Amino acid sequence: MRKIALWEAKHPKTVLIAALLLLIPALLGFLGTKVNYDILSYLPDELESVQGEQVLDKTFNTAGISIVITENMQPKQTLALKNEILKVNGVSSVIWIDTIADIGIPADILPDVLKNIFYSADGSQTMMLVRYDNTGSDDSQLKAIAQIKTLLGKNQFLSGLSVVVDDTREIAETQAPLYIAVAVILALIVMSVLMESWFQPLIILFSLGLAVIYNMGTNIFLGQISFITQCVAAVLQLGVTMDYSIFLIDRYAEEKQHFDTREDAMAEAVTVSMTALMGSSLTTVFGFLALCFMKLGLGFDIGFVMAKGVVLGILTVIFILPSVVLLFEKQIIKYRHRSFVPNFTTLNKFTIRHKKAFALLFLALLAPTYFLQKNIELYYSMDKALPSYLTSMEGLSKLKTDFGMACTQFIIIDDNMPADKLIEMERKLQSLDGVSSLLAYNSIVGAAIPDDIIPDDIMSLCKQDGKQLMMINSEYGAATDELTAQLDEMEDIVKSYDPDAYITGEGAITQGLIDTTDVDFAVTAVLSIAAIFILIAICFKSPTLPVILVLSIELAIWINLSISVIMGKEASFVDPTVVNCVQLGATVDYAILLTTRFREELRHLPRDEAMLKAVAAAQQSIFQSAGVFFAATFGVYLVCDIYIVRGMCALLARGAIISEIVIIFLLSPVLCVCESLIAKTTPSWRLKT
């Protein structure tokens, strides 16, 4: 490795040119990577609701159905709008009252089933169902939705899952450049204040920026990534890999005192640092990889991309950053200044002087924060993940308040079911609490009318390939206790008539999301803790240190989530899982850094003095790393309107600061108090290496 390091130190311009050339395929890969804006598409295929959604797609072409609502419009005006929508490329059909009855018939004398479906309670609003040529939320369907939006005027609204996906795409593409810019600017300001050179942050950001682009470019091999990953990957990668760059630059400054040439000093710094950097980064990598074991595919998406980002960050620090530092070292030195990291010497002395009291505080906080954070309120529905001004959210609000359609379910049954049984089942379903309307084939056309005289749009919507489709609208919103109970009753009724029937739709799929993520959270939490526990045990050759260090970060995580509970703040369903893995993996390095320095100082100083010196030496690096992590994630929180991303970044920003405080002011006294036990269980603890 030293030969490679020495070569790159002697040929910095060649290395930099090669690094810049690698940006070309990386940028092409980035542009060629598809972004998936549909979270529900990451649900496992074994869920019955997901299988039902696939049947909707393949058989009825209805999974991506959209709803257009018009308010205070004459029937002829609504019909004109319908005809305009039909002309949109990608739209296969539009079903409105004129599909079934003459628009000249007053709404008041229409059958109740038609009024309940197509008109609001006061009759001032009507809605039509839009179906598309292609299934799901593919590009052609999203383009059709974007075009439909341009046709809508005042008092005209659009809603549906595919519309939510399109709104998510639009807001992500619009805001992503802004909040990445804000995150970088805030990180640059924090680095400039906390580091000892005004120019050094630019060097670090340039090198890590290369790693971020390489990471995003190599995502093309995954085929696609989620919009959440697209939004947070660059910011998280910047935050969690920053300290690796700082470590190498500091080591280079140290080695320059022992070598005659800059090249030899840098080669030594790279050689010595590589093992330490690889070992330190493993905790972060394993924290992210734990997400890959989620049944929800979103976990693999975020976890793999971020783990890959950490690896590419380390490789960039080892193979590119040294050349950049050597090329711009004069500028780094020219713009040196004193660091503005706060001096906590007095506070550090106070905590060590009262180490037993702080150790007891550490223990006292564990149980209440653990149980409190388990009560965090989670939301699963997209209407809470997106701002209310979006087209889909305005339309959804109309459906809830004016049509009693807070949530829509689809039931797919065998078309050979006897008519009397079918009618009996429909009556039972309509009698369920919270069911606002039911749209079924025989309720629209009547059981005695032959199929061959029914309009094609109605037939294709209700009957295909030996299956029949019903649409049930509920007054209860997705992910509510009331809807869960309603779905259970609905399943009991439907399965008693057709055991092979499917119940799907937003509510059923969201319920599957709840069940899946409940298991995922438990699994990923255990895996991330176990992996990092084993790594620390191997690193320190100790059974006690992993317990102390992991508990310290877990305490920081529990405090972080407990604050949300105390403040009454809801979090998205992915937040606890992501925060647990990311905050644990990214900030356990702070604990390892402090512990390593404490062990070094113990070999020639008494216990308390050793800790004071260790804290003084480690806190600058911890402050710099935590400060950048906070700045980057807080920057996204400030400007992002995608609440699911915004909330995650708020938790991560707060978590970085909490981890920093816990490590410096609680872990340090705990290590002092437990030092004798650590020494007895760690053979090499006080031995010089």
Account of the 3D structure:
This protein has 27 helices and 13 strands. It is elongated and about 95 Å long. Strand 10 (about 465) and strand 11 (about 465-475) form a beta hairpin. It has about 700 residues and is an alpha+beta fold. The strands form 4 sheets. Strands 8, 9, 10, 11 and 12 form a 5-stranded antiparallel beta sheet that branches. It has a 4-stranded antiparallel beta sheet with strand order 3-4-2-5, with helices on both faces. The protein is about 65% helix and about 10% strand. The model has no long low-confidence stretch (mean pLDDT about 90).
Give the number of helices. Answer: 27
What value does the Rg take, in angstroms? 30 Å
Strand content: 5-15%
Instruction: Give the biggest sheet.
Output: 5 strands, antiparallel
Structural class: alpha+beta
Percent of residues in helical segments?
55-70%
β-strand number: 13
Mean pLDDT equals 88
Low-confidence stretches: none
Beginning-to-end CA distance, first to last residue: 22 Å
Shape: elongated
